[in-house]
């Protein structure tokens, strides 16, 4: 891949010896999970709620992780599935376009302001406007730096589907964002 | 003729050597194609500037706590607990010592980073770091409360704490690099204004204290003395 930043600890492809190691890697993955969730939800406070749900799920399923596969991709799939569940059960898709009134669990004006500023950026707004399936492909490949094959496995679709979703998603983003910032 | 998808795959590093050569040959002679590639790269830079901030921001304590609820189990399994004067007795004594001596440090605001993931593990920062360095168990720091202080079997000082605004309790030990957070746990604040030293510490943290401690929990004088020595 093209030298994408991968956070403080590179965990991909590492076979982990014990549950304690996995837990340490999970902690090390938190910054990237937050980044992925932000790209997926387009809202900073929602993103942290989602990461929390996903982390709790991941901990109950550590025994299902297949050694030798990528731990980061496995975690992304849990975040993504949790997001689908959340969006379905709470119909968040309708709320995604509401102004950022979140912060009920943030409890700090500075953070709220920061979140509002983040979410008002062109890229966040453009991502929120993308169809779900394009946004998740973009989040995995363009934001998290996964390869097409890994993204396809994470999403459970053929590589060709990922490729076309990426192409359509990028085209839509370029159209929405116009020229350079 | 290079398709848009192929150009995208080139930009993403997904092509094999033969295909790359093909795309690069086309790029050399096709200005429109070069402009499209440039647009891809510009978009990549915008993804980075929009989302990479998450990599540098401190991780909220509630996420750190969610990610490691079982730390205590590992501690308990690794170190055999000693039967001795335990936290309950100590807590009762400290509570009686602390009676009426609850000193307000004023509102220590300025939250921001409290626990940061670093190369060495989880490091205490900001008001948490300050409280671990200077705050005594009898003092009410507002945002941070310090509970029990003790030495672990490596001779390091460790202190339990609660982040009252984040509903997180934890245990940190003073290592070379500073206060390292050994574990965190969900924390339920006690109602009312009257606080008993140590009584708010969640049972799983107390169990870890029991498993790690060498000697006794520091009393108020020993705590003060340790603070004078900079917890070394």
Structure description:
The complex is a heterodimer of chains A (181) and B (232). Chain A is mostly helical and 181 residues long. Chain A has one domain (19-177): Butyryl-CoA Dehydrogenase, subunit A, domain 3 (Up-down Bundle). Helices cover 67% and strands 0% of the residues of chain A. Chain A has nine helices and no strands. In chain A, α7 crosses α8. The radius of gyration of chain A is 16 Å and the shape is globular. The two termini of chain A are 25 Å apart. Chain B is of the alpha+beta class and 232 residues long. Chain B folds into two domains: 4-55, no CATH class; 58-228, no CATH class. Chain B is 44% helix and 20% strand. Chain B has helices at residues 4-11, 17-29, 31-51, 53-56, 61-67, 71-78, 87-98, 126-134, 203-212, 220-228, and strands at residues 103-104, 115-118, 121-124, 139-140, 144-152, 157-163, 168-175, 178-186, 213-214. In chain B, the strands form three sheets. Chain B has a five-stranded antiparallel β-sheet with strand order 8-7-6-5-9. A two-stranded parallel sheet of chain B has the order 1-4. A two-stranded antiparallel ribbon of chain B has the order 2-3. In chain B, a hairpin with a 4-residue loop joins β6 and β7 (168-175). Chain B is rod-shaped, with a radius of gyration of 26 Å. At the A-B interface, α1, α2, α6, α7 and α9 of A face α1, α3, α4 and α5 of B.
């Amino acid at each position: 891949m093209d030298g994408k930043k991968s956070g403080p600890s590179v965990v991909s492809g590492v076979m982990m010896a014990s549950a304690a190691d996995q837990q340490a890697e999970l902690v090390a993955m938190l910054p990237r999970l937050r980044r992925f969730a932000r790209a997926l939800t387009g809202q900073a406070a929602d993103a942290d709620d989602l990461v929390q749900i996903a982390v709790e799920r991941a901990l109950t399923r550590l025994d299902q992780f297949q050694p030798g596969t990528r731990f980061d991709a496995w975690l992304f799939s849990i975040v993504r599935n949790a997001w689908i569940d959340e969006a379905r059960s709470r119909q968040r898709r309708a709320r995604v376009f509401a102004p950022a009134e979140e912060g009920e669990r943030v409890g700090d004006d500075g953070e709220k302001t920061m979140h509002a500023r983040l979410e008002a950026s062109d890229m966040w707004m453009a991502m929120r406007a993308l169809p779900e399936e394009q946004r998740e492909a973009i989040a995995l490949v363009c934001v998290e730096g996964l390869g097409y094959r890994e993204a396809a496995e994470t999403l459970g679709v053929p590589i060709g589907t990922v490729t076309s979703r990426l192409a359509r998603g990028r085209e839509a983003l370029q159209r929405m964002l116009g020229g350079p910032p | 003729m290079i398709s848009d998808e192929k150009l995208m795959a080139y930009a993403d590093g997904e092509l094999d050597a033969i295909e790359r050569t093909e795309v690069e040959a086309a790029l050399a002679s096709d200005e429109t194609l070069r402009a499209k590639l440039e647009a891809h790269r510009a978009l990549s830079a915008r993804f980075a500037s929009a989302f990479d901030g998450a990599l540098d921001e401190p991780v909220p304590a509630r996420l750190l706590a969610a990610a490691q609820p079982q730390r205590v189990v590992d501690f308990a399994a690794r170190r055999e607990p000693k039967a001795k004067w335990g936290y309950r007795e100590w807590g009762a004594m400290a509570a009686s010592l602390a009676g009426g001596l609850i000193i307000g440090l004023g509102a220590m605001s300025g939250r921001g980073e409290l626990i940061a993931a670093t190369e060495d593990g989880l490091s205490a920062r900001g008001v948490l770091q300050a409280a671990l360095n200077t705050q005594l168990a009898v003092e009410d720091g507002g945002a941070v409360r310090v509970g029990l202080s003790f030495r672990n079997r490596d001779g390091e000082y460790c202190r339990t704490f609660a982040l009252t605004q984040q509903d997180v309790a934890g245990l940190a030990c003073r290592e070379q690099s500073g206060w390292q957070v050994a574990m965190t746990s969900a924390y339920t604040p006690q109602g009312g204004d009257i606080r008993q030293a140590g009584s708010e510490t969640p049972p799983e943290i107390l169990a870890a204290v029991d498993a790690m401690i060498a000697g006794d929990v520091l009393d108020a004088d020993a705590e003060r003395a340790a603070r004078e020595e900079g917890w070394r």
